[in-house]
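Moderator note: this is an archived Q&A kept for reference. The question asked for a predicted structure of one protein chain; the sequence and the answer are reproduced below.
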Amino acid sequence: MRLYADLPAARARQLAADGLVLAWSGFWVWAATRVHGLVLALAMPGERLEDAGRGLADSLDRAGEAAAALPLAGDELAVPLRTARDAAAALAATGRTAQATVDHLALWLAVLVGALPVVVA
């Protein structure tokens, strides 16, 4: 079985068409990786939110422990600090969720941008 025609003109057209399809596919794969990288940049606010929430939760946890160690009113002082710690941990979890959402979006947009035109070709 031969991949290309025996006649030079037909073989040249086939090779040119294959080259165009290869260039087309390469361009869309490049575009898909570019889209993926650009969309991943949208995860930065989620990363910052996670870092801020985690840092705040750690600080409030230490403050709650220190307040609980105080005589007489320590337990009463620690309760709002622990509540605030839990809220800060929820902010960190929201940041992680936002990052995961952006990761999924970046992946599926890249697949659509890269695969759809290549499959059509």
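Archived answer notes: DSSP finds three helices and no strands in the chain.
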